[in-house]
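Aggregate trends can hide what the representation actually does to any particular protein. This step matters because it turns folding into a mapping between discrete strings. For completeness, the protein is quoted in full, as a sequence line and a line of structure tokens:
=====
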Amino acid sequence: PTPPITAANYLLGVGRADCTGPVAEIPLMGYANLKQVGGGLLTRLYSRAFIMADLEDSRRVVFVSADIGMVSQRLRLEVLKQLQSKYGDLYRQHNVILSGTHTHSGPGGYFQYTLFWITSKGLIKPSLNAIVKGIVKSIDLAHQNMKKGRIFINRGMVEHSQINRSPFSYLENPASERSRYSSDTDKEMVILKMVDEKGQELGLISWFAVHPVSMNNSNHLVNSDNVGYASYLFEQEKNKGMLPGEGPFVAAFASSNLGDVSPNTKGPVCVNTGESCNNPQSTCPVGGATMCMAMGPGQDMFESTRIIGQNMYLKAKELYEKASQEVRGPLSSAHQWVNMSDVSVELNATHTVKTCKPALGHSFAAGTIDGVGAFNFTQGSVEGDPFWDGIRDQLLGEPSNETKTCHEPKPILFSTGEMTWPHPWHPDIVDVQLATIGSLVILAVPGEFTTMSGRRLRDAVQREFEAHGSPGMDVVIAGLCNVYTHYITTFEEYQAQRYEAASTIYGPHTLSAYLQLYRGLAKAVAMDTIQDLPRGPEPPLFNITSITLVPSLSVDRAPAQKTFGDVLQEVREQYQEGEVAEVTFVGANPRTSAENTTEHNFLTVERYSNTSSSWHVVHNDASWDTRFYWTKGSSGHSNVTIEWHIPRGTEPAVYRIQYFGHYRRKISIFHTISVPFEGTSSPFQVTAL
């Protein structure tokens, strides 16, 4: 039911743009697994932008949720630079929130701090540029589409979609605090519904705390994981008859305080014996920690992704349809840059503590039950290991006594705050940011807050607003914003030193520092003294040319007597719904296509229409029913295999699959060109079951 036509409260604009980047040979960002490089595409990645302004258009707030692992400082600074050259002072660091969904299946390589170069093989310009371009384009589209409208808010519980992956750390929190909550994860989803003044639907933002790691670290296909599938279902529902990625309605499923929250609801199991490994160290009797993996609800990771994504979609749809509480009131935004390695925190009148220079503990290398580490590190280690410490001292230098003491009880593996070659390994300067839209407060946090850390942050901000005359604010946390600083656990969880605690890089008082900082922002907004907030020290922008271990693009070659796009393995003549149609072509490196066009579509599934005697596209490469695999051979040869997982209810008809690529060809010693080509399967019949 569309709400009756009443006065608009805001100017609203929404936009969506492709930010996929190269889908081959680039390490995927998230699991820190060097073997996990891109080898194709399951679904495209998008940046989704929402601009909210008051009716006088004196103040604006921009919220962007992008299908990427996290927003890096480099990415944010480049986006802000482009926005400033286009729009002057309209979109600045205080009113632009950039949030990553935290998919672990997107290309990496868009970081300027050295630690992240190790797992993503350096700074990869095509990867960085694709994301910058996509984010800016989504904001451009939203900017061009501003219209009068209304915002509604709703909230509800999502069941069967998360578990706490460090329950033993959670239990370190005081019993009196835990007794206030019914679960060790935040099950609440908060949604915003946007409509124009005629009641025409514009978009949805959902915030819900879950790791998008339904696709595990054996996956090589670029995709947006469970939250991306939820967006896809919502947008397909609202943009009827459109291909994925097309149509005016934009639905973002954004990240929140997901630090210790996994979607792998079957919990941790020893993959070799099948027994549970839900113990404080997440280890197995045989094979240790490397055998302990959490599994999702499905038969495989693809099905698990769909189940969790669908759970989120169905709840969001219900909340969206029933949303009746209207958001009204002024907009504002506040931002500071803070040197997080040196914050003094007043715990009470007599007690002051400090944050530390960044450092990662031993359990960081253990990984989690969603993606285990490569060596025999275990979670919950409060002792160092002489072997690894010795290697570290030789290669990277020993941590200073000051840093060791500051981080206790964390045994330091990498003292990143003391490592500066060739550039600093971790950020010191971090963004803290908050925006309000009427009674809604969005806290843009620079990392992964655990469940309890997020609860404490929301409480502190809500109380601060109340103390200064603004009771009853709705506070949501937007995760992985602006700069990546790993995890933020509570002081109590920090003592257990599991993965999340070992990755709380500014030491045991990190959360207390953020509570103090975000309270300061809240007070400034509530009392209208934002102009008195110190800006803080500006973050550095390192002058880095592309440094990368990713192989350079070579010339593509086709086998003798064949050409690019020729079919090597043909489809069958007939399939039933539920089966998989598969075809293999003489391929070329997909990176060549990415360098030519940002939004290159690699494949179509087309249906033949007898009435018009022509082919109609029914799926593109953004469809969750298609998979595009690229297999690299030797000396420039490669194959592309395209699968169409024919969904139940597919119209019985004649279909074909097309492949679109570019091959790189030498025309002189110094000069190569990219040549577009296509390949087409034989037609095949799809029949009903």
Q: What stands out?
A: The longest strand covers residues 653-666. DSSP finds 14 helices and 40 strands in the chain.
